[in-house]
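Re: beginner question about structure tokens

> Can someone show what the tokenized structure looks like for a real chain? I only ever see the sequence side.

Sure, here's an example I had lying around. Input first:
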Amino acid sequence: MTRPAAALREEMDARLSKLDDIELKLRSLRRFKLQEQLRLGILDLAGTIQRDTVQNQLTALAEACLNATLDVALNDLRPRLEGPCDKGFVVLAMGRLGAAEMGYGSDLDLLFIYDDATEGSFSQRDAVRVAQRLIQMLTFRLSEGVLYPIDTRLRPSGAQGPLVSSANGFQNYHRDRAMLWERQALLRARPVAGDIALGNAVLQALDPVRYPADLAEGAAAEVHRLRQRMEKEIGKEGADVANIKSGKGGLVDLEFAIQLLQMRHAHAHPALKVTGTAAALAALSEVQLIAPRKSRQLLAAYRFLRLLESRLRIAQDKASTAINFADPMALKLARRMGYARGGAPVNSLRDDYERVTALLRRFYTTVFTPEGESS
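And the corresponding structure tokens:
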């Protein structure tokens, strides 16, 4: 029923080995992804696999597709590269992929790093060529669609910065110039393709930045200001409109609260150095920073919102986190969530949503108050 990334990759490699044409390879990868997503979707809607399993499987699928596409890109470029291409280039996953929390329709937040310190490793020019070719292959629209949308705006200096960073340059940037939100984003970073050892070394060197011994004074207020801005500018909630991700009590409330606790306490509690929300909640309970009962409540709330986000994606057939409870679509969504056909399923869904988001907002507020900071 579940398939690890290694098994997915093995089947992909078997299919690709029979093809010589690059376009045929890219079509094969897209068909494989669609086939796996359909299989997962059927199991998901039938209720035969858990929400965490769906996220893990979609993450494994994305990693397998990414690695297979990187191989195709490297083989295509190999004659034109200046040096060897078997080490010294790594793809870091950020966001949902980094947290192993992929959903239907999630894009891939990626960073590209090359080794500028090892003799015979990737040159900057080669690294840029590979990154550009990889993005092109992932996003090129064929009749089967794109493989994955790619977002690289979390790289140093954002969209205005170089597409590829050197390992030393990346580390120096985050040590000396990065804003707090950029260091916060690194909490979800992990290597997923290419030279994994290089990626692990780069991130380990940045542990003092990600998990400082003493979090700077005013850091919580700065994170809170960003959260308020997201709620206002992205959430855009109204009387009947709610935003599962960025709205009041949404997923970002829980994620930001957990990430602040990680930045504050992971130096003393290495078990907190994990990228996923559920894993971080478990670790916080394990080191007694969150009571076990509260951890279970928060995990249930998180799973409810992620399930709702998934069902909304299926009901609307587009990537969106906004719900209009006054829209006829809300009835379809409520039924997808398993609310009874009789009675008032939309009202029941709305009641549960408001209860869950109120719980998450209370937790967020506790963490971000001075009293919560010291607890």
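Each token stands for a local structural state, so reading them left to right follows the chain. The two ends are 42 Å apart (CA to CA).
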